[in-house]
């Protein structure tokens, strides 16, 4: 009798696990996917080595811009939206009720600075990267012939 109860209890718990697994949504296939929140410690370290955007003091704290991404259960914004602020300005922006208004009063668009800092640590791929050219300096392009516009050739090796 006790074995029957334990098997019934076990099957109920298995059923609950199956239901929980089935309720998980693959958010990558949604039409409007959830905003990604990238974590990169090296980038945050790089940002903290920069001087404060407001006054130029060092050292600085890495401030995650709260108004650029929607809040998600008390999670920070992505590390790509991190700017350097000295300790005083960092506390001040957190104490202000409206961060976007605080930046407006400072006269600075922090999203531009955050993007520039992100591109310093994560440069965009170049055309040569996309084409698979290992040494772009060794390519020869004949631009005088319009038929070859946009094409690149490798120089011939001498025998």
Computed structural class: mainly alpha
Oligomer: single chain
Number of strands: 2
Question: Could you list the spans in which at least 5 consecutive residues all have pLDDT below 50?
Answer: none
- How far do the termini sit from each other? 90 Å
Helix content: 25-40%
User: Approximately what portion of the residues adopt beta-strand conformation?
Assistant: 5-15%
Biggest sheet layout: 2 strands, antiparallel
SS summary, helix count: 6
* Radius of gyration, whole Å: 27 Å
The ordered string of helix (H) and strand (E) elements is HHEEHHHH
Mean pLDDT across all residues, rounded?
Answer: 76
The strands making up the biggest β-sheet line up spatially as: 1-2
Overall shape: it is globular
Walk me through the structure.
The chain is 40% helix and 5% strand. The chain has 159 residues and is mostly helical. It has a domain at 41-121. It has a two-stranded antiparallel ribbon. It is globular.
Could you list some keywords that capture this structure?
about 160 residues; two-stranded antiparallel sheet; about 40% helix; about 5% strand
Give a brief description.
The chain has 159 residues and is mainly α.
